[in-house]
Amino acid sequence: MNELRDEFLSRELHEECGIFGIYNNSDAASLSYYGLHALQHRGQEAAGIAACDTGGEINCYKGKGLLAEVFNNEIIATLPGRHAIGHVRYSTADANQIENVQPIMVRSHTASFAVAHNGQIVNAPELRHELEKRGSIFQGVSDSELLAHMIQVEEGSFEECIVKACRRFEGAFAFVILTNKAIYAVRDKNGLRPVSIAKLPEGGYCVSSETCAYDIVAGEYVRDLKAGEIVKIDDEGIHSYQYTDDTQYKMCAMEYIYFARPDSTIDGINVHTARRLSGRALAKREDTEADIVIGVPDSSTSAAIGFAEEIGLPYEIGLIKNRYVGRTFIQPTQKQRERGVRMKLSAVSSIVKGKRVFMIDDSIVRGTTSKRIVQLLKEAGATEVHVRICSAPLISPCFYGVDTSTYDELISARLTHDELCEFIGADSLRFMEVDEMGESFGTKNLCTACFDGQYCTKLFSYGEILESEKNK
Ligand code: SF4
Protein backbone atom coordinates (compact mmCIF):
# COMPACT_ATOMS: atom_id res chain seq x y z
CA MET A 1 0.00 0.00 0.00
CA ASN A 2 2.86 2.42 0.80
CA GLU A 3 4.35 2.00 -2.69
CA LEU A 4 0.95 2.64 -4.21
CA ARG A 5 0.51 5.76 -2.08
CA ASP A 6 3.97 7.03 -3.11
CA GLU A 7 3.12 6.44 -6.75
CA PHE A 8 -0.24 8.20 -6.29
CA LEU A 9 1.34 11.20 -4.59
CA SER A 10 4.23 11.54 -7.01
CA ARG A 11 2.07 11.62 -10.14
CA GLU A 12 2.40 14.63 -12.38
CA LEU A 13 0.28 16.05 -15.11
CA HIS A 14 -0.81 14.28 -18.26
CA GLU A 15 -0.17 10.61 -18.57
CA GLU A 16 -1.71 9.75 -21.92
CA CYS A 17 -0.67 7.39 -24.65
CA GLY A 18 -1.39 6.75 -28.31
CA ILE A 19 -1.77 3.33 -29.92
CA PHE A 20 -1.73 2.42 -33.59
CA GLY A 21 -1.89 -0.86 -35.50
CA ILE A 22 -1.83 -1.94 -39.11
CA TYR A 23 -2.77 -5.22 -40.77
CA ASN A 24 -1.70 -6.24 -44.26
CA ASN A 25 0.35 -3.48 -45.82
CA SER A 26 3.77 -3.77 -47.43
CA ASP A 27 4.92 -0.67 -45.50
CA ALA A 28 3.44 -1.65 -42.13
CA ALA A 29 6.28 -0.33 -39.91
CA SER A 30 6.75 2.80 -41.96
CA LEU A 31 2.99 3.57 -41.99
CA SER A 32 2.91 2.93 -38.24
CA TYR A 33 5.62 5.55 -37.86
CA TYR A 34 3.47 8.09 -39.72
CA GLY A 35 0.34 7.10 -37.82
CA LEU A 36 2.17 7.50 -34.51
CA HIS A 37 3.52 10.84 -35.70
CA ALA A 38 -0.07 12.10 -35.89
CA LEU A 39 -0.55 10.82 -32.31
CA GLN A 40 2.65 12.40 -30.94
CA HIS A 41 0.61 14.93 -28.91
CA ARG A 42 -0.59 11.97 -26.77
CA GLY A 43 2.91 11.07 -25.62
CA GLN A 44 6.41 12.42 -26.10
CA GLU A 45 8.45 10.39 -23.62
CA ALA A 46 8.92 7.13 -25.52
CA ALA A 47 7.90 5.33 -28.68
CA GLY A 48 7.98 1.82 -30.11
CA ILE A 49 6.92 -0.30 -33.07
CA ALA A 50 6.63 -4.10 -33.39
CA ALA A 51 6.18 -5.73 -36.82
CA CYS A 52 5.99 -9.14 -38.45
CA ASP A 53 4.79 -11.11 -41.47
CA THR A 54 2.15 -13.83 -41.38
CA GLY A 55 3.84 -16.84 -39.79
CA GLY A 56 7.06 -14.89 -39.20
CA GLU A 57 8.98 -13.67 -36.21
CA ILE A 58 7.92 -10.45 -34.44
CA ASN A 59 10.62 -7.77 -34.30
CA CYS A 60 10.33 -4.81 -31.99
CA TYR A 61 12.23 -1.56 -31.56
CA LYS A 62 11.51 1.04 -28.89
CA GLY A 63 13.25 3.82 -27.04
CA LYS A 64 12.86 6.97 -25.01
CA GLY A 65 12.16 10.28 -26.69
CA LEU A 66 10.09 11.70 -29.51
CA LEU A 67 9.26 9.38 -32.39
CA ALA A 68 11.77 11.13 -34.66
CA GLU A 69 14.47 10.72 -31.99
CA VAL A 70 13.79 6.99 -31.60
CA PHE A 71 13.35 6.00 -35.27
CA ASN A 72 15.10 6.62 -38.58
CA ASN A 73 14.91 4.85 -41.97
CA GLU A 74 17.60 2.31 -41.07
CA ILE A 75 15.78 1.28 -37.88
CA ILE A 76 12.42 1.04 -39.64
CA ALA A 77 14.09 -1.22 -42.24
CA THR A 78 14.86 -3.67 -39.39
CA LEU A 79 11.11 -4.10 -38.84
CA PRO A 80 9.94 -5.98 -41.96
CA GLY A 81 6.48 -7.44 -42.39
CA ARG A 82 2.92 -6.59 -43.40
CA HIS A 83 1.55 -6.23 -39.87
CA ALA A 84 2.59 -3.85 -37.07
CA ILE A 85 1.54 -2.13 -33.87
CA GLY A 86 3.03 1.00 -32.30
CA HIS A 87 2.88 3.17 -29.24
CA VAL A 88 3.74 6.69 -28.08
CA ARG A 89 3.96 7.25 -24.36
CA TYR A 90 3.78 10.08 -21.88
CA SER A 91 4.63 9.07 -18.36
CA THR A 92 6.00 10.19 -15.05
CA ALA A 93 9.75 9.97 -14.55
CA ASP A 94 9.48 6.95 -12.26
CA ALA A 95 7.37 4.94 -14.67
CA ASN A 96 9.51 5.82 -17.66
CA GLN A 97 12.05 3.05 -17.25
CA ILE A 98 12.79 1.28 -20.52
CA GLU A 99 10.98 -1.83 -19.16
CA ASN A 100 7.72 0.13 -19.35
CA VAL A 101 8.24 1.42 -22.87
CA GLN A 102 5.85 -0.32 -25.26
CA PRO A 103 5.06 -2.48 -27.16
CA ILE A 104 5.79 -5.18 -24.59
CA MET A 105 7.10 -8.36 -26.25
CA VAL A 106 6.24 -11.88 -25.15
CA ARG A 107 8.11 -14.89 -26.55
CA SER A 108 7.01 -18.10 -24.87
CA HIS A 109 6.41 -21.71 -25.85
CA THR A 110 2.64 -21.08 -25.89
CA ALA A 111 2.48 -17.77 -27.74
CA SER A 112 4.55 -14.93 -29.17
CA PHE A 113 2.93 -11.55 -29.31
CA ALA A 114 3.44 -7.82 -28.75
CA VAL A 115 1.04 -5.59 -26.84
CA ALA A 116 0.58 -1.85 -26.28
CA HIS A 117 -2.09 0.10 -24.44
CA ASN A 118 -3.57 3.44 -23.48
CA GLY A 119 -5.32 3.97 -20.14
CA GLN A 120 -5.04 2.58 -16.64
CA ILE A 121 -6.36 -0.61 -15.06
CA VAL A 122 -7.41 0.38 -11.54
CA ASN A 123 -7.19 -3.12 -10.06
CA ALA A 124 -3.72 -3.67 -11.60
CA PRO A 125 -1.92 -3.71 -8.20
CA GLU A 126 -4.26 -6.44 -6.92
CA LEU A 127 -3.96 -8.51 -10.13
CA ARG A 128 -0.19 -8.12 -10.22
CA HIS A 129 0.04 -9.31 -6.63
CA GLU A 130 -2.15 -12.32 -7.44
CA LEU A 131 0.01 -13.23 -10.46
CA GLU A 132 3.25 -12.82 -8.54
CA LYS A 133 1.94 -15.24 -5.92
CA ARG A 134 1.38 -17.70 -8.80
CA GLY A 135 4.97 -17.26 -10.00
CA SER A 136 4.80 -14.51 -12.64
CA ILE A 137 7.84 -12.26 -12.75
CA PHE A 138 7.26 -8.66 -13.85
CA GLN A 139 9.98 -6.56 -15.50
CA GLY A 140 8.13 -3.24 -15.21
CA VAL A 141 4.82 -1.75 -14.05
CA SER A 142 2.93 -1.23 -17.29
CA ASP A 143 -0.62 -2.51 -17.73
CA SER A 144 0.47 -3.98 -21.08
CA GLU A 145 2.81 -6.30 -19.24
CA LEU A 146 -0.05 -7.20 -16.91
CA LEU A 147 -2.23 -8.14 -19.91
CA ALA A 148 0.67 -10.15 -21.35
CA HIS A 149 0.96 -12.16 -18.11
CA MET A 150 -2.81 -12.56 -17.80
CA ILE A 151 -3.01 -13.96 -21.35
CA GLN A 152 -0.24 -16.43 -20.55
CA VAL A 153 -1.81 -17.80 -17.37
CA GLU A 154 -5.30 -18.24 -18.85
CA GLU A 155 -6.31 -21.39 -20.69
CA GLY A 156 -7.96 -21.73 -24.11
CA SER A 157 -7.46 -20.19 -27.54
CA PHE A 158 -5.64 -16.86 -27.81
CA GLU A 159 -8.99 -15.04 -28.21
CA GLU A 160 -10.43 -16.83 -25.18
CA CYS A 161 -7.39 -15.83 -23.10
CA ILE A 162 -7.85 -12.16 -24.09
CA VAL A 163 -11.55 -12.35 -23.21
CA LYS A 164 -10.83 -13.94 -19.82
CA ALA A 165 -8.10 -11.39 -19.04
CA CYS A 166 -10.30 -8.40 -19.98
CA ARG A 167 -13.13 -9.70 -17.79
CA ARG A 168 -10.79 -9.38 -14.78
CA PHE A 169 -9.84 -5.77 -15.57
CA GLU A 170 -11.53 -2.70 -14.10
CA GLY A 171 -10.67 0.74 -15.40
CA ALA A 172 -9.90 2.41 -18.67
CA PHE A 173 -8.04 0.67 -21.46
CA ALA A 174 -7.56 0.39 -25.17
CA PHE A 175 -5.14 -2.35 -26.24
CA VAL A 176 -3.55 -3.36 -29.53
CA ILE A 177 -2.02 -6.82 -29.78
CA LEU A 178 0.09 -8.23 -32.61
CA THR A 179 0.56 -11.93 -33.32
CA ASN A 180 1.96 -13.38 -36.52
CA LYS A 181 -1.59 -14.25 -37.62
CA ALA A 182 -3.64 -11.21 -36.68
CA ILE A 183 -3.87 -7.92 -34.86
CA TYR A 184 -6.39 -7.31 -32.09
CA ALA A 185 -7.85 -4.10 -30.69
CA VAL A 186 -9.74 -3.95 -27.38
CA ARG A 187 -11.85 -1.22 -25.78
CA ASP A 188 -12.89 -1.30 -22.12
CA LYS A 189 -16.48 -1.93 -21.12
CA ASN A 190 -17.03 1.70 -20.04
CA GLY A 191 -15.75 3.06 -23.35
CA LEU A 192 -13.42 5.41 -21.45
CA ARG A 193 -10.62 5.44 -24.01
CA PRO A 194 -11.01 5.98 -27.75
CA VAL A 195 -10.00 3.48 -30.43
CA SER A 196 -11.34 3.07 -33.94
CA ILE A 197 -10.75 1.17 -37.21
CA ALA A 198 -10.03 2.41 -40.75
CA LYS A 199 -9.64 0.68 -44.12
CA LEU A 200 -6.48 1.20 -46.17
CA PRO A 201 -6.62 1.83 -49.92
CA GLU A 202 -4.80 -1.43 -50.81
CA GLY A 203 -7.16 -3.53 -48.72
CA GLY A 204 -5.53 -3.72 -45.27
CA TYR A 205 -6.83 -2.15 -42.06
CA CYS A 206 -5.50 0.09 -39.33
CA VAL A 207 -6.59 0.92 -35.79
CA SER A 208 -5.78 4.07 -33.87
CA SER A 209 -6.43 6.00 -30.66
CA GLU A 210 -7.49 8.96 -32.76
CA THR A 211 -8.89 9.35 -36.25
CA CYS A 212 -6.41 12.15 -37.06
CA ALA A 213 -3.86 9.36 -37.74
CA TYR A 214 -5.91 8.04 -40.68
CA ASP A 215 -5.38 11.07 -42.91
CA ILE A 216 -1.62 10.59 -43.00
CA VAL A 217 -1.88 6.90 -44.01
CA ALA A 218 -4.84 7.47 -46.42
CA GLY A 219 -7.06 5.32 -44.18
CA GLU A 220 -10.82 5.54 -44.54
CA TYR A 221 -12.56 5.59 -41.14
CA VAL A 222 -14.83 2.53 -40.67
CA ARG A 223 -16.09 2.82 -37.08
CA ASP A 224 -15.21 3.25 -33.40
CA LEU A 225 -14.88 0.07 -31.35
CA LYS A 226 -17.88 -0.60 -29.14
CA ALA A 227 -17.48 -0.59 -25.36
CA GLY A 228 -16.38 -4.06 -24.25
CA GLU A 229 -15.48 -5.11 -27.80
CA ILE A 230 -12.48 -7.10 -29.02
CA VAL A 231 -11.79 -6.78 -32.73
CA LYS A 232 -9.57 -9.28 -34.51
CA ILE A 233 -8.25 -8.39 -37.97
CA ASP A 234 -6.77 -11.19 -40.08
CA ASP A 235 -6.76 -12.41 -43.70
CA GLU A 236 -10.51 -13.09 -43.46
CA GLY A 237 -11.28 -9.49 -42.47
CA ILE A 238 -12.72 -8.04 -39.24
CA HIS A 239 -14.12 -10.30 -36.49
CA SER A 240 -15.91 -8.82 -33.49
CA TYR A 241 -16.29 -10.31 -29.99
CA GLN A 242 -17.83 -8.79 -26.86
CA TYR A 243 -15.88 -9.72 -23.74
CA THR A 244 -18.91 -8.53 -21.78
CA ASP A 245 -22.42 -7.21 -22.46
CA ASP A 246 -22.37 -5.21 -19.22
CA THR A 247 -21.31 -2.02 -20.99
CA GLN A 248 -21.85 1.72 -20.97
CA TYR A 249 -20.30 4.71 -22.74
CA LYS A 250 -18.31 7.03 -20.51
CA MET A 251 -15.82 8.62 -22.90
CA CYS A 252 -13.25 10.71 -21.04
CA ALA A 253 -14.50 14.34 -21.16
CA MET A 254 -10.87 15.48 -21.11
CA GLU A 255 -10.34 13.92 -24.55
CA TYR A 256 -12.78 16.47 -25.97
CA ILE A 257 -11.65 19.33 -23.71
CA TYR A 258 -7.88 19.00 -23.90
CA PHE A 259 -6.16 15.84 -25.10
CA ALA A 260 -7.40 14.88 -28.55
CA ARG A 261 -6.42 16.73 -31.69
CA PRO A 262 -9.15 19.06 -33.00
CA ASP A 263 -9.29 17.18 -36.32
CA SER A 264 -10.11 13.88 -34.59
CA THR A 265 -13.64 12.53 -34.28
CA ILE A 266 -14.42 10.42 -31.22
CA ASP A 267 -17.63 8.38 -30.97
CA GLY A 268 -19.15 10.49 -33.74
CA ILE A 269 -18.25 13.90 -32.26
CA ASN A 270 -15.57 16.04 -33.90
CA VAL A 271 -13.24 17.47 -31.25
CA HIS A 272 -12.98 20.97 -32.79
CA THR A 273 -16.79 21.16 -33.03
CA ALA A 274 -17.21 19.99 -29.41
CA ARG A 275 -14.79 22.68 -28.20
CA ARG A 276 -16.38 25.37 -30.33
CA LEU A 277 -19.84 24.47 -29.00
CA SER A 278 -18.55 24.53 -25.43
CA GLY A 279 -17.23 28.07 -26.05
CA ARG A 280 -20.65 29.08 -27.40
CA ALA A 281 -22.41 27.57 -24.37
CA LEU A 282 -20.08 29.40 -21.97
CA ALA A 283 -20.73 32.72 -23.74
CA LYS A 284 -24.53 32.33 -23.45
CA ARG A 285 -24.34 32.98 -19.70
CA GLU A 286 -21.96 35.93 -20.01
CA ASP A 287 -22.84 39.29 -18.50
CA THR A 288 -19.41 40.92 -18.31
CA GLU A 289 -18.39 43.46 -20.94
CA ALA A 290 -15.07 43.22 -22.77
CA ASP A 291 -13.48 44.20 -26.09
CA ILE A 292 -11.83 41.06 -27.50
CA VAL A 293 -11.71 37.27 -27.05
CA ILE A 294 -8.43 35.35 -27.01
CA GLY A 295 -7.69 31.65 -26.49
CA VAL A 296 -4.74 30.01 -24.73
CA PRO A 297 -3.07 28.08 -27.57
CA ASP A 298 -3.55 25.42 -28.79
CA SER A 299 -6.29 23.45 -27.07
CA SER A 300 -8.47 26.51 -26.29
CA THR A 301 -8.46 28.03 -29.77
CA SER A 302 -11.64 26.24 -30.94
CA ALA A 303 -13.51 27.17 -27.73
CA ALA A 304 -12.38 30.80 -28.01
CA ILE A 305 -13.69 30.95 -31.60
CA GLY A 306 -17.07 29.64 -30.39
CA PHE A 307 -17.15 32.08 -27.47
CA ALA A 308 -16.39 35.03 -29.78
CA GLU A 309 -19.04 33.93 -32.31
CA GLU A 310 -21.73 33.71 -29.65
CA ILE A 311 -20.92 36.93 -27.83
CA GLY A 312 -20.29 38.93 -31.02
CA LEU A 313 -16.78 40.14 -30.22
CA PRO A 314 -13.63 39.86 -32.36
CA TYR A 315 -11.56 36.69 -31.85
CA GLU A 316 -7.92 37.79 -31.72
CA ILE A 317 -4.54 36.07 -31.48
CA GLY A 318 -3.46 37.62 -28.20
CA LEU A 319 -1.08 34.84 -27.17
CA ILE A 320 1.58 33.19 -29.32
CA LYS A 321 2.96 29.75 -28.51
CA ASN A 322 6.61 29.02 -29.19
CA ARG A 323 6.59 25.48 -30.62
CA TYR A 324 10.32 24.94 -30.21
CA VAL A 325 10.66 24.95 -26.42
CA GLY A 326 12.50 21.82 -25.29
CA ARG A 327 10.20 19.42 -23.50
CA THR A 328 12.83 18.53 -20.89
CA PHE A 329 13.51 22.12 -19.89
CA ILE A 330 14.85 22.05 -16.34
CA GLN A 331 13.21 24.60 -14.06
CA PRO A 332 14.96 24.52 -10.72
CA THR A 333 14.27 28.05 -9.49
CA GLN A 334 11.23 30.29 -9.50
CA LYS A 335 12.98 32.75 -11.82
CA GLN A 336 13.80 30.01 -14.32
CA ARG A 337 10.23 28.65 -14.11
CA GLU A 338 8.85 32.09 -14.92
CA ARG A 339 11.24 32.40 -17.84
CA GLY A 340 10.01 28.95 -18.94
CA VAL A 341 6.42 30.25 -19.27
CA ARG A 342 7.69 33.31 -21.16
CA MET A 343 9.57 30.98 -23.51
CA LYS A 344 6.40 28.97 -24.16
CA LEU A 345 3.92 31.84 -24.50
CA SER A 346 4.13 35.49 -25.48
CA ALA A 347 1.37 38.06 -25.13
CA VAL A 348 0.88 40.22 -28.24
CA SER A 349 1.02 43.75 -26.91
CA SER A 350 -0.28 45.38 -30.12
CA ILE A 351 -3.46 43.24 -29.77
CA VAL A 352 -4.18 43.39 -26.04
CA LYS A 353 -2.86 46.85 -25.03
CA GLY A 354 -5.66 49.03 -23.67
CA LYS A 355 -8.24 46.23 -24.14
CA ARG A 356 -10.59 44.37 -21.83
CA VAL A 357 -9.87 40.74 -22.64
CA PHE A 358 -11.88 37.51 -22.35
CA MET A 359 -9.16 34.88 -21.94
CA ILE A 360 -10.54 31.40 -22.78
CA ASP A 361 -8.75 28.34 -21.41
CA ASP A 362 -9.65 24.65 -21.30
CA SER A 363 -9.01 23.94 -17.60
CA ILE A 364 -7.18 25.05 -14.45
CA VAL A 365 -5.08 22.41 -12.72
CA ARG A 366 -2.57 23.92 -10.28
CA GLY A 367 -3.44 27.52 -11.18
CA THR A 368 0.18 28.59 -11.56
CA THR A 369 0.08 28.63 -15.40
CA SER A 370 -3.17 30.64 -15.45
CA LYS A 371 -1.63 33.09 -12.98
CA ARG A 372 1.41 33.60 -15.19
CA ILE A 373 -0.65 34.03 -18.37
CA VAL A 374 -2.88 36.66 -16.73
CA GLN A 375 0.29 38.43 -15.59
CA LEU A 376 1.75 38.29 -19.12
CA LEU A 377 -1.43 39.83 -20.56
CA LYS A 378 -1.48 42.62 -17.97
CA GLU A 379 2.20 43.37 -18.51
CA ALA A 380 1.41 43.58 -22.24
CA GLY A 381 -1.14 46.30 -21.48
CA ALA A 382 -4.52 44.50 -21.11
CA THR A 383 -6.68 46.69 -18.86
CA GLU A 384 -8.88 43.80 -17.66
CA VAL A 385 -8.49 40.02 -17.98
CA HIS A 386 -11.66 37.95 -17.55
CA VAL A 387 -10.76 34.26 -17.42
CA ARG A 388 -13.37 31.85 -18.81
CA ILE A 389 -12.79 28.11 -18.51
CA CYS A 390 -14.47 25.69 -20.93
CA SER A 391 -14.80 22.93 -18.34
CA ALA A 392 -15.89 22.63 -14.72
CA PRO A 393 -13.40 23.02 -11.83
CA LEU A 394 -11.07 19.99 -11.49
CA ILE A 395 -11.69 18.71 -7.98
CA SER A 396 -10.73 15.02 -8.03
CA PRO A 397 -7.80 13.02 -9.47
CA CYS A 398 -8.11 10.74 -12.48
CA PHE A 399 -7.40 7.02 -12.05
CA TYR A 400 -8.06 6.14 -15.68
CA GLY A 401 -4.72 7.00 -17.26
CA VAL A 402 -4.83 10.80 -17.32
CA ASP A 403 -2.84 12.40 -14.57
CA THR A 404 -4.87 15.47 -13.76
CA SER A 405 -2.55 15.81 -10.77
CA THR A 406 -2.89 14.71 -7.17
CA TYR A 407 -5.69 15.80 -4.88
CA ASP A 408 -3.43 18.26 -3.04
CA GLU A 409 -2.33 19.94 -6.26
CA LEU A 410 -5.81 20.50 -7.71
CA ILE A 411 -6.29 24.14 -6.80
CA SER A 412 -10.08 24.05 -7.26
CA ALA A 413 -10.25 21.34 -4.57
CA ARG A 414 -8.51 23.65 -2.09
CA LEU A 415 -9.62 27.23 -2.82
CA THR A 416 -13.03 28.86 -3.08
CA HIS A 417 -13.98 30.41 -6.39
CA ASP A 418 -13.15 33.94 -5.17
CA GLU A 419 -9.83 32.81 -3.66
CA LEU A 420 -8.88 31.18 -6.97
CA CYS A 421 -9.81 34.30 -8.96
CA GLU A 422 -7.62 36.36 -6.65
CA PHE A 423 -4.78 33.82 -6.80
CA ILE A 424 -4.58 33.93 -10.61
CA GLY A 425 -4.92 37.73 -10.61
CA ALA A 426 -7.96 37.80 -12.93
CA ASP A 427 -10.60 40.54 -12.89
CA SER A 428 -13.24 37.81 -13.03
CA LEU A 429 -13.34 34.03 -13.40
CA ARG A 430 -16.06 31.66 -14.58
CA PHE A 431 -16.17 27.90 -15.23
CA MET A 432 -18.72 25.70 -16.99
CA GLU A 433 -21.13 23.56 -14.98
CA VAL A 434 -20.46 19.80 -15.16
CA ASP A 435 -23.80 19.09 -16.93
CA GLU A 436 -23.21 21.93 -19.34
CA MET A 437 -20.07 20.25 -20.74
CA GLY A 438 -21.89 17.16 -22.05
CA GLU A 439 -24.88 19.21 -23.19
CA SER A 440 -22.66 21.49 -25.24
CA PHE A 441 -20.76 18.54 -26.80
CA GLY A 442 -24.09 16.88 -27.64
CA THR A 443 -23.59 13.74 -25.51
CA LYS A 444 -24.53 12.48 -22.08
CA ASN A 445 -22.04 9.61 -22.42
CA LEU A 446 -19.09 11.18 -20.65
CA CYS A 447 -16.82 10.40 -17.74
CA THR A 448 -16.66 13.57 -15.66
CA ALA A 449 -15.12 12.00 -12.54
CA CYS A 450 -12.32 14.54 -12.19
CA PHE A 451 -14.98 17.29 -12.14
CA ASP A 452 -17.56 15.67 -9.85
CA GLY A 453 -15.80 12.73 -8.12
CA GLN A 454 -18.33 10.25 -9.64
CA TYR A 455 -16.11 7.37 -10.81
CA CYS A 456 -17.76 4.80 -13.07
CA THR A 457 -15.74 1.87 -11.69
CA LYS A 458 -14.62 0.68 -8.29
CA LEU A 459 -11.26 2.23 -7.42
CA PHE A 460 -9.88 -0.63 -5.29
CA SER A 461 -6.76 0.46 -3.33
CA TYR A 462 -6.80 3.88 -5.01
CA GLY A 463 -10.20 4.57 -3.44
CA GLU A 464 -8.78 4.12 0.06
CA ILE A 465 -5.83 6.39 -0.72
CA LEU A 466 -8.14 9.05 -2.18
CA GLU A 467 -10.33 9.01 0.95
CA SER A 468 -7.34 9.37 3.26
CA GLU A 469 -5.95 12.25 1.14
CA LYS A 470 -9.31 14.04 1.27
CA ASN A 471 -9.49 13.66 5.03
CA LYS A 472 -5.98 14.94 5.71
S1 SF4 B 1 -11.53 11.23 -14.52
FE1 SF4 B 1 -11.35 13.01 -15.92
S2 SF4 B 1 -9.43 12.71 -17.04
FE2 SF4 B 1 -9.97 10.75 -16.08
S3 SF4 B 1 -11.12 9.59 -17.62
FE3 SF4 B 1 -12.64 10.69 -16.40
S4 SF4 B 1 -12.91 12.67 -17.45
FE4 SF4 B 1 -11.05 11.74 -18.24
Automatic annotation (TrEMBL):
Annotated [4Fe-4S] cluster binding lies at 252, 398, 447, 450
EC number(s) of the enzyme?
2.4.2.14
InterPro entries noted in UniProt: GATase_2_dom, Ntn_hydrolases_N, PRTase-like, PRTase_dom, PurF, PurF_N
Keyword annotations of the record: 4Fe-4S, Glutamine amidotransferase, Glycosyltransferase, Iron, Iron-sulfur, Magnesium, Metal-binding, Purine biosynthesis, Transferase
Q: What is catalyzed by this enzyme? A: 5-phospho-beta-D-ribosylamine + L-glutamate + diphosphate = 5-phospho-alpha-D-ribose 1-diphosphate + L-glutamine + H2O
**Binding annotation for Mg(2+):** 299, 361-362
4Fe-4S as a keyword? yes
Q: Which family does it belong to?
A: In the C-terminal section; belongs to the purine/pyrimidine phosphoribosyltransferase family.
Q: What is this protein called?
A: Amidophosphoribosyltransferase
Which organism does this sequence originate in?
Answer: Amedibacillus dolichus
In the UniProt record, what gene is named as encoding this protein? purF
